[in-house]
Design brief:
This protein starts with a helix and ends with a helix. It is built from one helix and no strands.
Length: about 50
């Protein structure tokens, strides 16, 4: 009984850590995509201005 509770606790802790890691990775990817979009937008604006 005690072992089962301990395993359950470890499993939920592992799942929580995995979800947290996934959230951090997704936030990083979203920030990178946003910076890429801003950069390409600025390049397009500059190309229009120089034309």
């Amino acid at each position: 009984m005690m072992l089962e509770m301990m395993f359950d606790w470890l499993w939920h802790r592992f799942l929580g850590a995995m979800l947290f890691t996934l959230g951090v990775v997704l936030a990083y990817v979203a920030a990178w995509l946003l910076s890429e979009a801003i950069e390409s937008y600025q390049a397009a604006q500059q190309a229009l201005y120089l034309r």
